[in-house]
Amino acid sequence: MRKLVAAVIVFVVLLVGVSIAANVLVDQKALRARVAIALKQETGLDLKVEQSAVQFLPWPSIVAQNVVLSRAGDVPVFQAQSLHAGLSVLALLQREIRFQDFVADGARIFVHRRADGRMDWMTHALNSQEEEAPLPVNGFQARRIEAHWALALDALHLTNSTVQWDDRRLGVSGGFAVQALDLAGLRTPSPWINLAGQHAGTPFTVKGHVSALGALWSGASSQGASWPFSLAATLGPESHRDWLELDGAMQDPRHLQGMTVHVRGEWLDVQDAQQLFPHAGLPHVPALGGDVTLAGGVDWAALRAMQKGGRSGWWPVPGLTPTALHLHAGSMPVRGVELGHVTLAADSAQSPLMLETDIEWRGSDWHASGQAGTLSGMVGFVQSVGRGSAVPVQAEIRSQSLSLSATLNAPNAAPPVNSQDALVLTLNGAVGAASQLTVQGHADQLSTPWAVLHGVTLGGQLALDGQAVYAVKGLDFESREAALSGDVRLSFPANAMPQINGALSAKHLDIDALKLMTSSAAPSASEQAVHAVTVPQAVLKTAIAVEHKSTDAPVVEDHAAVSSVPNWVTLLRAQDADMVLSADQLRVGGAEYTGVSGHIVLAGGHVTLDTLKGQGAGVALGGVLDVNASGWPVQMHVQAASLVLPARWLQEAVSMPEMLQGTVQLVGDVRSQGHDVQSMRDALEGDLGLSMVDGQVSGALLAQLAGPQAASFIGSGLHGLRCLGTHMVLSDGKATVERLGLQAGNVQVSGQGQIGLVAQNLTLHVRPSVQLAGAEASAPLMLDGPWTHVTVQPERDVDGNAQLTLGGAAPAEEDPCVAWLAAGRNGQAGPQPAAAAKHHNRASDLLKALGVWH
Fold first, then answer.
1. Which of 410, 476, 559, 771 has minimal CB crowding within 10 Å?
2. Whole-angstrom Cα distance, residue 301 to residue 75?
3. Chain center to CA of 507
4. Any idea where the AsmA domain is (predicted)?
């Protein structure tokens, strides 16, 4: 026992003595120089160490402080406050510095790529060089070292460290903190990694293993075998954790060729990744997950071309394509439409690509499902940017009777707007360089943002020829409100205006039911007459303005006179069109039309509507509309053989209060020019006749025409208007009324005067009269003032006396409506009013109205 204890003591003394002798005999500066030379030979990096020491207990190792690795002129690649590296003594005998266990604390790792694509972290070994360095043993003279020293690393451990990157070529940078990193078995066939880090307070982990790292430098796996790998990552705390797994193999890992990768994972929200990449601009896509199998290799030439062109292309990694996928997402926004419960699946490359999703738009919900060719065919189509072989597709869209939020009784949940639609829409065809899709559908009702249609059927073909030309062929749409058929072609030629042309016909079209006349926006100060961009109102408003006397003269822009371009001018200049429109039955603004047709041509902001035909209110329609908005001033011209329009449109066009209801027949020729509706109204010239039969007139207007006390006699409601006829001459922002006459019940008014279209006032000399039991009572009046506050005064004779005529038999003459309507129609045909009804009134009513009897 004593001998054993003595042997142990001798061994310990010898071991301590060897350690002390090693520290005395080993020249630390020389050893650092040899390590620096070996590192330079292997990687081309320069090593700087502030302080180091060699230890032999409990095993041979090197301890260093403030270590820096860098390339000349570059940012340091690696910095560490302290290092501890175990050394293999036997490897030193073979001129190899092998770190069996490399531990760094407080390290900072920099990954930097220059604008020219050079990476300072890539190795640049010095294959042949001669370096002078002293021997690491004190007492020996320095000599030339010609042999190459190898450098090897078995394991790497980092704690309390950071990783940063700066890619000048792509213009991205970032970094994260490393709580712990373990890289072990680096010289074995299966190294493994265990990383725990965080960025901006968000934790993440990476675990897994890869194959021999030597293949990364040699360019291919050993003996042509595959290079397998398996990695798993998590992001976020336990309560909100996303995960991702990658398994696969590569034939050439250095160049990322011959790859087969299986990716699977679940992300609570795609935007979670912005916690690591804050400038990625990722969309809000919750509950994204599934698995994808990828195969192929990175096409570096195509990738460099995409990066050089500053675009990502339709496929993020060219050359690497999916061979199977099963993906799902809770929801995702696509161009203002919300897609929910999205699933995308294909079992193999030759299986059809299946898609299923819910669609939500403006309070309406649909369910869509469909399939497209094969997965490989769709990948080829996408990679070719839509110029590959045609891919067969089919899809079905159905309206949802109950939304998910309503099913779950979510707060403020409500059934979708289209819950009663029972819509079924199918699409069949092929998508490619020349796409053809057949569309068929039906619905009990169809809810749109503009109207609710009933009893809908739909059929037709959608075509795309690959030259940015879209066409609807054989359109057949029918509902209770509208029935349309025809062809429409929309093209977007390069360096030219978009063009739309074709022909549409309607068996019946109820625009009032379609709510096309409704406007939710208030008119601007410069466009008080323009409420909404609707075809009927636009036609009327251009009818009160005109074109320059010579439309063939060149148009000169006068931007100094224009503060802003009106929206309707911008719309006219934005595209060209050539459309033939017709309707067997048309209802708009309360007016009924039959056999209506017209030809609209729009080119360079110049629109014409000619060959207008049809019947409205018993009148044959005819006229020409010409609006030239290609330059300044805008020029307009209207020739109305007869146009029948709702009275409301006319009153809105000139900003008059709504006093008349019914249809107005317009006959005349007017023209103008200006920079907006108001300036064109100021410059109106020409003559215009208006007539109206069997309409309605405001009692307030009749009371103004009949005198200050007429309100108590007539009332403020609507009264039947038997006839109205007037002819006026337009000039200098005024309308000179040459003749005016109307008859409503037992009240009739005739006169003449002037209406200020610019000043919005009027001065009329009228003679109202009332028929009372075969007798007539009348008194001449003058109406003067703004439209909203007209004052009524009696006309006086030369002696200043008011005039009043009472009693006497009514003159036996022609119905006065005949002459008034003839004046308003300029000799054109039109409907005649119904026979005058016989009224029974008290004479006291008239006397009270005229202020004679109180």
1. 559
2. 29
3. 35
4. 2-171, 485-736
The label of the residue with tokens 């690393």 reads 153
- Cα end-to-end distance, the chain, whole Å: 148
Backbone angles phi, psi at 803, to 5 degrees: -115, 140
Kindly state the tokens that stand for 250: 């590569």
AA identity, residue 81: Q
Beta bridge partners of 427: 395, 439
For 217, residues 6+ apart whose C-beta sits below 8 A from its C-beta are: 123, 254
Question: Under the phi-then-psi rule, with left for phi > 0, alpha for psi from -120 to 50, and beta for the rest, what region is 665?
Answer: beta
Structure token pair of residue 415: 């059934």
Matching residue, tokens 């919750």: 286
> 705, 768 in Cβ contact below 8 A?
yes
Q: Which one, of 589, 715, 582, 709, lies nearest residue 647 by Cα?
A: 589
User: H-helix or E-strand containing 636?
Assistant: strand 634-646
- Mind listing the pLDDT tens digit for each residue in 240-279? 899 999 999 998 888 888 899 999 999 999 988 888 878 7
pLDDT in tens, 670-712: 999 988 878 888 888 999 999 999 888 887 777 777 665 555 6
Beta strand segments in 16-77, E: 46-55, 61-70
Specify the pTM: 0.68
**Spatial distance between the Cα atoms of 370 and 350, rounded to a whole number of angstroms:** 16
User: Please, which residues have CB within 8 angstroms of residue 380's CB and are 6 or more apart in sequence?
Assistant: 388, 389
Q: Are 830 and 666 in contact (CB under 8 A)?
A: no
Instruction: Mention every residue, 6+ apart, whose C-beta is less than 8 A from residue 393.
Output: 370, 371, 372, 373, 427, 428, 429, 430, 431, 437
Cross-strand pairs, 67: 49, 80
- State whether residue 776 is helix, strand or coil: strand
Amino acid, single-letter form, for residue 67: V
Residue type, 210: V
Report how far residue 483's alpha carbon sits from residue 453's, in angstroms, rounded to the nearest whole number. Answer: 11
User: pLDDT digits over 303-346, tens only?
Assistant: 777 666 655 555 677 788 999 999 999 998 888 888 999 999 99
Place of tokens 């008290």: 842
